[in-house]
User: What shape does this take?
Amino acid sequence: MYPADLKYTKDHEWIRTSADTADVGITDYAQQQLGDVVFVELPQVGRVLAQGEVFGTIESVKAVSELFSPVAGEIVAVNDALTSAPEQVNSDPHAAWIIRVRPSNPADVDALLDSAAYDAHVG
Amino acid sequence: MSDTQTVLKQTPLHATHLGHKARMVPFGGWDMPVEYSGITDEHLAVRTRAGLFDVSHMGEIEIAGADALAAVQRISSNDAARLAVGQIHYSALTTPQGTFVDDLLVYRMAEDHFLLVVNASNIEKDFAWIRSQVQTFADAPAVNTSSRYALLALQGPVAKDVLQSLTAVPLDDMKYYWFAPGEIAGVRGTISRTGYTGEDGFEVFVPPAQAAHVWQAILRAGAADGVIPAGLGARDTLRLEASMRLFGNDMDETTTVLEAGLGWIVGWKKDDFNGADVLRAQKANGIERTLVGLEMVDRAIARHGYPVIVDGQAVGTVTSGTQTPFLKKAIGMAYVPTALAEPDRQIHVEVRGRLAAARIVPMPFYKRPRS
Assistant: This one.
């Protein structure tokens, strides 16, 4: 059920690479655990993240959760649409990207979980 | 004994919730449904149609006997002498310091018989406290009858019509905060016009063995009107929109009834009761802090425990806060110094290390349209 073209972290983020950038979001499992998402706190474009660094928070009606970067890199864009429509994270979690980064070490991505390994992790 | 696991209690509807594929969470020692279709969906259903809640985890403690009224008057802040048989009021189970052991509903079942509905997480504490208090009366024994009742809450604008289709009790004649015995879907129980959502609605006490039958009957009767099961998540957002306090969040053993903004549940004219001297002194001299409503100005959500900042100083604490599904605002309640507690005053809430602007607003945040 988890798309094969994405890589995953044990913290329930996904990353989709294309050319020299990669989109980051949270998984279907994560959005189910959170419940109705009502707020996504987006970081500044241009910020440089270490792998595993907190880049924002996501809040549901009940809970607050931190977002961790799957890779090291610079933030080149944020998904402003989530400011007015955070519920996209619930309705289409693997399309609702939160940040777009330029990974400083593309090998970071290869070391992440593939869809089968992530499925086993949450299963 | 650190490896001892706490076994969560289950309501008589536990299997029913699993059948609905509810998301279950531990709450006050109980394994309870936090949501079924989603908090927002359930919240909006209650505001526009109706939702059905299992609140069987709530406790019931009964006091009966010739001295029952005197005993209730001693332990509870409100004036139970003003309750007619069949009537209910909201009250505080007070400490001698005028603070909350718990908040509760007091049902006058008969002249000398009262039923107290208390918070699930406080049942044992409340019962121990009440027993220690009533033993000074010759004839006012207290019994923990929590296991005798399942409690279902049907809340929302269509609640009356849906429930009426299952009972001969004339619900149109039942006033807010009154109750009556009667059959619901063929099951003997008690119906009260009460709730914790800010909507019109009813709570139904039935024997645990028949709870699932009554639950299914209500959902079937309400299906055409869009009645759905609703969990503790929506219960919390609904009560907050309606500015109803939650024990453990908005008040506890350290906050007095007046500080919690609940002077209306104090029977000022009745004789002595636990904490009366403290509350009377606070009424005469004023209180140093008070519970206020707040609305976020900046894009941020205030949560329980976040500091309230004025002029760079931490002056209070947020007690409840969320982004509300119906009003679509980030609202909350907080204790602030009384001198600062004026509508429209700008304050800040410290949200994970950052200051977010908010303003003090009157409560309730939501008041249902009167039909």
